[in-house]
Write a structure and sequence with these properties.
The chain is mainly beta. Helix content is about 10%, strand content about 25%.
Length: about 120
């Protein structure tokens, strides 16, 4: 995309006091996923419609546990922070530690660690 001959760009920083040891993942079309809620709720399930490339903080995240589920994070499925799919949709995650998550009841859900993947896979 361009505006009057100049490319449209977006940027942000990851201003943290420690490294996340980011990884790049290539996610092919047809990948099966779930919302990552484990025993804490009913996870949405989907099959990716679009291939994507994502930046993931899995190097750091896989050494911790989810504040939502209490379970360890999954290196391959959790941790997507930024990405773009083959249709050109770009997604960028923002995180606020103080966030309180509602009880889902009977609704299916997706954890914050898989939200970027859900959007890139399905939109």
């Amino acid at each position: 995309f361009s505006h009057e001959g100049f490319p449209v760009m977006s940027a942000r920083t990851m201003d943290w006091s420690f490294p996340f040891h980011d990884y790049l993942f290539v996610i092919p079309r047809g990948t099966h996923m779930d919302g990552g809620l484990g025993h804490s709720g009913s996870s949405a399930t989907w099959t990716s419609k679009y291939g994507s490339v994502i930046s993931s903080i899995s190097g750091w995240l896989s050494t911790t546990t989810s504040s939502r589920t209490g379970q360890p994070f999954d290196f391959e499925h959790d941790g997507g922070t930024d990405g773009v799919n083959e249709r050109g949709l770009a997604v960028h995650l923002l995180y606020l530690e103080a966030t309180q998550y509602p009880v889902l009841g009977d609704r299916q859900g997706v954890t914050y660690g898989r939200w970027v993947r859900y959007l890139l896979d399905t939109c």
